[in-house]
Every structure is written in structure tokens, then in C-alpha cells.
């Protein structure tokens, strides 16, 4: 099937009307055009209407009339006239053709129209062309109040928005004049044609005069009196500089017929718009790949088409996507002209304009296109499904759904990083180090923070604390399902005989009981995946145990209303690329023990004291750079949004697991803890092999991650003391980690549906 942008929306009735004209002795503008103008006013409750041969001619004629010095209020040569950056070429050209200066105003990426409040940014403007894009508008109440307060002359380019309203009033009828187009593809058609509406009899006669050479023949000679003309033939009395922009009679005849069907066709168009956009929005592969502009609150939009905005990550392939659609018989085109300030003709208008300053228009330009919302027929479910399948079969949209996709809004780090570089503080000191450390104090509940090169470097600091403060510690316990970073460091720092692996709870994946640990021992706790180990509870069980926290996956969580990381002797954070905060790599050592802080502060600075180049102990350089801290600060400042998004991912998984009666089970959390929502593990009871699940989900382009292989299963670590039969082996086989970063509800539903097929 071919999905055309434009389909024929006329039938025998229009053909008969045109035939009547052709069989008459009057083909040029006459009674059929006049009738259509009156029908148009009656249909939409407009005061006066003047038909012309195109929508572009309507813009030219209206702007020329608004510059006429005989009007009570008029534009003068050199006056600045605002026009949206996203507009049609002949929204701009009439401004220039009338010796005015176009001033481009940015367009909102959300509505495609200007933000009304931005009008006040241009105090020198004398007029504005409000271009209502594709059936939508700006906030007309705000725009008209600002325009009236400023005395701006307002022209509405409504060529793409016939029948749309704002707060019950038709667009085009707010300003001094409004223009419409009846081009073949628009809400109604006369093949070519346009219309201007106005509010006063003077403007009405002025428009008719300029439309036809500047003579008064069609204006009841009312302009003669203005010009005191008495000595020329009334039929050939030229009083204004004019054009020949007259329509043909067959256009007027066709227009009157089309008016009878515009409401019916709008209903069809709107039904298609709703059905197609709903199907695209809910499509299982639509992980924020395709979205749509929003209708401005107050606007009753009759969308002219289906405007599409790709996720900015796919801007690089917009042209390839549009060609792919063409190749698959889905006609498409840019949204109007995109950012008009990027058009080559700008060198003739203002070569000094920088298109990048129009940030909203730039996004529309780089990510926007539209496809048809036809008005000749309602698409069937099958036709819509085929259309949507084609859209999402584009190869660039079908990359794996990764366990970790990308950091959260990392672009917000750019100004901080730039500032850090320009300040010359690019080493291990600077304001971003200090600001980040201060922000982390409330997040971790620790008074002392040291930023480190990596999370592993922070764990090394914790191990050094244990050796420094508790040198007689007999045993060090660590969970047997932990990442190897912690284990590697302990093995470098302590004898194997002193290390013992602890099994974890099968449901929470964390250590839940330490009553049987040896006296004078240390415990390196790991807050595992989405679960939080209840450290206060463990301390009540065994207050004599030295507890250190690997909080890499736990920060932003809580135990017994305390921030994770605050109850142990010390804790560490990781800012690896897949953590809640990311700096690419990076970590932090956290404690409430001032003595340990001072020791580690010196250790991470090569054993320095406050005296320059004086060393008091062995040390190394583990410090984070100021540039890295600049990235970190931008992430910390988004913590509320990060947690909000992560929670929504969690609740969406719960929702679809419940709705589908899935055999997937979500990792259980201790009732006295609050998750960090870094991720969650999903259990498949009695599953024999993670590899099977991994390979099956790969077929659906779904990336997964295993729970870590138990430490004792590695050949070189079999001699570490451990229980022979452990929960961690079962956990490795039965639990999987599913994508938990930048995945929307559609993708989560898709993931759960795919998982249900294989378990």
C-alpha cells in the first residue's frame, strides 16, 4: 500500500460545479468567487473575506494592505516584523517585499509554534506574523494581549490551520488580518487558491483594490472619496499600487462545494490522527524514538498532518529515515521548511543570522518530519499496523535494548566542564571538587567525603582504614556474590586465610544475619542491585563487628530512614558509567570518623601533610580531577529526576509482570529499607542456566546482565573459605538483570512479553 501525503478530496459535485463554470461565459473572477467569499464568512462567522489565487498571494496582499498609509494604523518602511523561525517562505518574503525587516523568533519544539511570552523579547517590533503551524497555535490569549498592549499590527498566517480554534474562536480571526490557503493538500482545496479575512469595510475594499491592479472597480468606488478622484472612468480608476492576484471562477465554485464537506473530512482526518499517533506511541519498540508535538492548551487543533519528532539521538539519521520511508511508499516531508534561518536564501535576507540561536527551531529542523493524516478515508487497523511496522523497522531504530543505555542528561555537564577547563583548575583541586563533596554529604549522611579516581580506588581506601584502625582484626567477611573489584583489593591487602565468603539471602540477595561471625572481625557489606542491606539491624545483631559498606549500587537509598553509607565505619560510592550518577569513572570515600578521613585524605595525596612537599606516611594519588567533578555535580543536581525516572521504571515492570501473570519475580527488599532503584534483579524459579535466558532474549534484541558468578566458582579462588552449597549459585542461575535505564513503558511491556514467551 502507498501512504501518500495528499489524496484527492473532491468528487463529482466539485466536477459538476467546475463544468457549470466552463459552460458559462464567465471564467475570470465573478459571481462564483463572490459567493464563495460570502459562504466562507458565513461558515466561520468572519466579517469580510477576499479570495486570491493562492495562500502565498494572500500573505503578500495582506502585508501590502497593512502597510497602506491610509489605514488608521500601518507599518512603515524599515519597521521590524516578528515571524517564527519555523515558517513557510512566503510568510517571510512579503515582509521584505514591503520594505520591512523580518525578525525571527524561536519556535517551541513542543508545540512547533512560538512561545507567546517571547514577543516581549523584541521591544522594537511594530508587527508580527503569527504562523499557525500544521493546525496548532501559540497561546493566542497571551499573544494578543501582548500585541495589543504594545500596539503591534498582527497578521495571522493560517494557511495550514483552517478550522482550528483557540478558546472557541477560529484561528485567523484574532489579528488585523488572517490568511488561508486552499492548496491541493490543505484542509479544503480549490486546487490553488487563498483567502484573506479582515474586520473593517475599509480593509475589505482596500484588499479588493490591491488584489486587482490597484483599481477601485470591486470596491464600490469607496476609495475614490479618500483620494478625491472625480475625473477618470470609474471602471478604470487606479488609486493604489496593486497586483493581479485574482482567482478564477472555477476556484470559487469548487470552494463553495468544498465548504459543505470540510467538517466531515476533518472528522476523518482527526480519527486517523488519533488512531495513528496512538499506535505509534504505544508500539512496543517505541522507546522514546518517536514523539509528537503537543497541542497548545486552549487550542482546538485540527492537525493538518501527523508531525513527527525523532529523539534527538537519531538526528544524525533523519535524512536516511525519510529516504527509507520514501522507499517503502510512505511519503513524507520536513515540518514546513524546518528552521528557515538555515535556508540558502538567508544570504539575501540577513547573512549574519546564526541559525543555532533558535534552539527550538533547530530541534524541529534536525528531528522533524511529517506524514499524512488523510481526510479521504479512515485507515483500517491493518493499514495502520503496516504503517507503524514500517516506521519502526528502520535499521537505526533496531539496535539492542541495552541493560545500560546512556547516562542521565549528560549534556547538562557541558557548561560545568567548560567552566572547569577555562578556569585552568583541571587537576585535583577546584570548586567542582568542593561543591560535589558538599552535596554528597546529605546524600550519604557522612560529614567527610573524598572524591577518588574510581570506585575501586575508594574500596582500597576502605581496606586501608581497616588495616590502619583495626590492625588486630582476625577475619574479614565479604558476600560471595559480589563484584570482583572488592575481592581483588582485599586479596592484595590481606592474607587469604583471613578472608571468608558469606552466603546471601535468596530473596533479597543481601546479607541478612551475622550473629555467628567470629569476634573481632570485619564485614564488607555490598548493597546488591536494587536491594539495601539493613546495616542498623546488623549492628544490633553484632555491635562488635567492624562494618564497611560498598554503597556503589545503594546510594540514594535508605535503611531505617538513614541514608545508605551512613551507618558503617566508612562507605564507598562508584560513579562508573552505569551507576545512578556517572562521571565515566570515579568514586568517593565517605565516613563520619574524622581520624579516618584525615588518614585517607593524606593517603590519597601521596602521604602529603599540610606542609608543602612534606610526607608523613605511604600514599598514592587517587584523587578525582576537577573536570570529572564538574560532570559529577551536574549529575547530583538531577538526583530527584533520576530517582523519579528509576522508580517509574520499577513500577512499570511491576505493573506488566502483574498484568501478564508473568513467572518473573522481582527482587524482594527489606521492609525497613528504601531502594536506590539503581536496578532490580528478576527471578525465574528453578531456572537451570542464566545463559539460556540470555541467549533467548538476545533473539529479541534485549540485552541482559547476570548476577555475578559466586566468587568460589572461579578457579583461582576456590581455596577461599566458603560454604560448599550456597544460595549464590542458585541466584546466579535463577536471577537476571533486565534493562533498567532509559526504557519507557512500551519497551518494558515488550521486554516482559518476550520474557514470558521463554519461561
Mean pLDDT: 93
Determine the fraction of residues in helical runs and give it as a percent range. Answer: 25-40%
Unreliable stretches, pLDDT < 50, 5 or more residues?
A: none
CATH hierarchy: architecture of the largest domain: 3-Layer(aba) Sandwich
Total tally of structural domains: 4
Number of helices: 24
For the largest beta sheet, what order do the strands appear in spatially?
1-9-8-5-4-2-3
Largest sheet: 7 strands, mixed
Tertiary shape:
elongated
CATH topology of the largest domain: Aspartate Aminotransferase, domain 2
> CATH H level of the largest domain: which superfamily?
Type I PLP-dependent aspartate aminotransferase-like (Major domain)
Termini Cα gap:
37 Å
Q: Would you state the CATH class of the largest domain?
A: Alpha Beta
Radius of gyration: 35 Å
Strand runs, count: 27
Q: Determine the structural class based on helices, strands and strand pairing.
A: alpha/beta
Strand content: 5-15%
Amino acid at each position: 500500500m502507498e501512504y501518500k501525503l495528499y489524496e484527492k478530496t473532491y468528487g463529482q459535485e466539485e466536477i459538476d460545479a467546475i463544468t457549470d463554470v466552463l459552460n458559462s461565459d464567465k471564467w475570470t473572477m465573478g459571481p462564483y468567487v463572490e459567493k464563495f467569499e460570502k459562504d466562507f464568512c458565513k461558515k466561520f462567522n468572519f466579517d469580510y473575506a477576499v479570495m486570491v489565487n493562492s495562500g502565498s498571494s494572500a500573505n503578500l496582499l495582506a502585508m501590502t494592505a497593512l502597510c497602506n498609509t491610509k489605514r488608521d494604523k500601518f507599518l512603515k518602511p524599515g519597521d521590524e516584523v516578528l515571524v517564527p523561525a519555523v515558517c513557510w517562505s512566503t510568510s517571510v518574503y512579503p515582509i521584505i517585499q514591503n520594505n520591512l525587516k523580518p525578525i525571527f523568533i524561536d519556535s517551541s519544539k513542543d508545540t512547533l509554534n512560538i512561545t507567546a511570552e517571547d514577543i516581549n523579547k523584541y521591544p522594537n517590533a511594530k508587527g508580527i506574523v503569527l504562523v499557525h503551524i500544521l493546525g496548532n497555535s501559540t497561546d493566542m490569549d497571551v499573544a494578543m494581549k501582548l500585541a495589543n498592549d504594545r500596539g503591534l499590527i498582527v497578521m495571522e498566517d493560517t494557511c495550514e490551520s483552517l478550522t482550528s480554534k483557540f478558546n472557541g474562536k477560529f484561528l485567523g480571526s484574532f489579528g488585523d488580518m488572517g490568511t488561508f490557503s486552499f492548496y491541493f493538500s490543505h484542509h479544503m482545496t480549490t486546487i490553488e487558491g487563498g483567502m484573506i479575512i479582515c474586520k473593517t469595510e475599509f480593509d475589505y475594499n482596500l484588499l479588493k483594490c490591491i488584489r486587482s491592479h490597484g483599481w477601485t472597480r470591486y470596491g464600490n468606488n469607496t476609495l475614490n472619496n479618500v483620494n478625491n478622484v472625480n475625473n477618470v472612468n470609474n471602471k478604470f480608476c487606479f488609486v493604489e499600487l496593486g497586483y493581479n492576484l485574482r482567482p478564477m471562477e472555477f476556484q470559487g465554485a469548487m470552494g463553495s462545494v468544498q465548504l459543505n464537506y470540510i467538517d466531515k473530512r476533518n472528522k476523518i482526518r482527526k480519527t486517523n490522527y488519533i488512531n495513528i499517533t496512538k499506535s505509534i506511541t504505544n508500539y512496543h519498540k517505541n522507546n522514546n524514538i518517536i514523539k509528537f508535538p503537543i497541542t497548545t492548551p486552549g487550542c482546538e487543533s485540527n492537525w493538518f498532518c501527523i508531525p513527527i519528532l525523532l529523539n534527538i539521538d537519531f538526528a544524525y539519521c533523519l535524512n536516511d529515515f525519510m529516504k527509507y520511508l520514501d522507499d517503502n511508499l510512505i511519503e513524507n516531508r520536513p515540518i514546513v521548511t524546518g528552521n528557515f534561518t538555515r535556508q540558502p536564501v538567508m544570504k539575501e535576507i540577513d547573512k549574519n543570522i546564526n541559525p543555532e540561536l533558535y534552539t527550538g527551531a533547530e530541534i524541529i529542523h534536525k528531528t522533524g518530519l511529517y506524514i499524512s493524516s488523510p481526510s479521504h478515508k479512515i485507515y483500517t487497523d491493518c493499514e495502520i499496523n503496516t504503517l507503524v511496522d514500517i516506521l519502526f523497522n528502520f535499521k537505526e531504530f533496531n539496535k539492542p535494548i541495552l541493560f545500560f543505555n546512556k547516562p542521565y542528561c549528560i549534556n547538562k555537564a557541558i557548561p560545568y566542564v567548560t567552566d572547569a577547563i577555562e578556569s585552568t583548575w583541571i587537576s585535583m583541586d577546584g570548586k567542582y571538587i568542593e561543591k560535589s563533596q558538599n552535596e554528597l554529604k546529605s546524600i550519604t549522611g557522612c560529614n567527610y567525603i573524598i572524591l577518588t579516581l574510581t570506585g575501586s580506588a575508594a574500596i582500597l581506601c576502605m581496606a586501608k582504614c581497616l588495616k590502619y584502625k583495626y590492625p588486630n582484626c582476625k577475619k574479614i567477611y565479604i558476600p560471595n556474590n559480589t563484584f570482583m573489584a572488592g575481592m581483588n583489593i582485599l586479596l592484595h591487602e590481606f592474607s587469604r586465610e583471613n578472608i571468608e565468603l558469606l552466603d546471601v539471602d535468596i530473596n533479597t540477595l543481601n546479607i541478612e544475619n551475622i550473629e555467628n561471625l567470629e569476634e573481632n572481625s570485619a564485614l564488607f557489606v555490598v548493597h546488591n542491585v536494587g536491594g539495601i542491606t539493613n546495616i542498623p539491624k546488623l549492628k544490633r545483631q553484632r555491635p562488635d563487628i567492624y562494618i564497611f559498606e560498598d554503597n556503589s549500587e545503594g546510594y540514594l537509598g535508605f535503611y531505617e530512614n538513614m541514608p545508605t553509607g551512613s551507618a558503617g565505619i566508612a562507605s564507598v560510592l562508584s560513579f562508573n558509567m552505569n551507576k545512578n550518577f556517572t562521571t565515566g569513572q570515579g568514586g568517593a570515600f565517605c565516613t563520619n570518623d574524622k581520624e579516618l578521613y584525615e588518614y585517607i585524605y593524606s593517603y590519597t595525596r601521596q602521604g602529603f601533610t599540610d606542609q608543602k612537599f612534606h610526607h608523613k606516611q605511604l600514599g598514592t594519588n587517587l584523587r578525582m580531577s576537577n573536570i570529572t567533578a564538574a560532570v559529577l555535580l551536574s549529575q547530583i543536581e538531577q538526583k530527584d529526576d533520576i530517582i523519579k525516572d528509576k522508580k517509574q521504571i520499577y513500577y512499570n515492570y511491576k505493573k506488566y509482570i502483574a498484568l501478564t501473570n508473568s513467572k518473573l519475580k522481582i527482587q524482594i527488599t527489606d521492609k525497613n529499607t528504601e531502594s536506590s532503584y539503581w536496578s532490580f534483579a528478576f527471578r525465574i524459579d528453578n531456572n537451570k542456566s542464566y545463559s539460556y535466558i540470555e541467549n533467548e532474549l538476545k533473539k529479541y534484541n534485549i540485552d541482559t546482565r547476570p548476577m555475578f558468578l559466586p566468587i568460589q566458582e572461579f578457579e583461582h579462588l576456590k581455596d577461599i573459605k566458603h560454604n560448599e552449597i550456597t544460595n549464590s549459585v542458585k541466584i546466579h542461575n535463577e536471577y537476571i538483570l533486565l534493562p533498567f535505564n532509559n526504557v519507557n513503558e512500551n519497551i518494558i511491556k515488550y521486554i516482559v512479553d518476550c520474557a514470558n514467551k521463554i519461561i
